[in-house]
């Protein structure tokens, strides 16, 4: 979840620094376009993106992308941040299917003036309920983090996402069973710190991550419509982390709008087990939706001869209501009638509200964190309005207030008031 401001770079810089990303892009295209001509028979273009496929679907190439431009306005004096406009995400997605059972996904991001690889992995489908994934991808822990950034309730994901690992490199077995009602994932990863992503790892220990999510009445025609949208699950990660190569192995934390919250004192290092527990649920019924999540992140830390097990936690619960009557869902809102003022149709409108709270372990103070500089806890309240003129476009405005407490630094800190806006296009 950590973001850094960067300056823009030239095209020549991107080519020289990220030739590997472009090479992967070329490889995907050559794999598909190099297939026998008999397999490339149809080209499709619709609201779901662009696709080249044979009639049987054994060979496919899908092309998609996301563009999100944000405006962040801080209403007051918040140290370390400023109001700004920025290109949050500029992503290109390629996914290819080879002989039905094998697929490749590649997603690059050119937002914030950087060229990065977000996803790069291979899937192998053993059967209808079991697949193997290998490469760099989202770890199966947080409910909101696994949700597409195009479909999240507000511009920023909630605080529980800051207490789980984000993208990492590893191997994962996953699938659906029990009539598609139970979704499961279990994998081994390098072990990214809270709220961060990794491309590699400097230490031998790895993280074991597992998640199960059940929708008891999914695809049950006899069940009430009020039950089919209920889902609940649990994500767990267990591993060992120690400092290495100048890195403490520990994360620092910021508010949703990038002002400092909590960081460890100098000399504090990871020194043993790291465990995360993430219960989660959502419920969708007609135009109404609710999503809730709790994240516990526990770390063994050391400073000099002192050791401690610290547990940080966060939770959130949010609700949404599609004013125009379309169905709410984890995958987002699709307007029944696209924007057409001549025909008197305006797309879909959605109201949303969220409350969330974070809590850093009180035992971290004062030995491992400075109470005169760090915050112990805080609560955020937010409300938002989204307009979907067509399926692929969204305009969003969110107002948020965050208060702080628990330490001298928090008591001296004013509440943070922000107004964020986003214009996004995805296909």
Q: How would you describe this protein?
A:
- There is one protein chain.
- The protein has 427 residues and is mostly beta strands.
- Helices cover 7% and strands 50% of the residues.
- It contains four helices and 20 strands.
- The two termini are 24 Å apart.
- The N terminus is likely disordered.
Properties at a glance:
single chain, about 425 residues, mainly beta, disordered N terminus
Give a nutshell description of this structure:
The protein is mainly beta.
Number-wise, the strands total 20
| Overall body shape | globular
Rg from C-alpha positions? Answer: 22 Å
Major sheet:
16 strands, antiparallel, barrel
Helix percentage? under 10%
Distance between the termini: 24 Å
Biggest sheet strand order reads 3-4-5-6-7-8-9-10-11-14-15-16-17-18-19-20
CATH architecture: Beta Barrel
| SS-based class | mainly beta
> Would you identify the regions where 5 or more consecutive residues have pLDDT less than 50?
1-17, 35-40
**Run of helices and strands:** HHEEEEEEEHEEEEEEEEEEEEHE
> What is the fourth-level CATH superfamily?
Porin
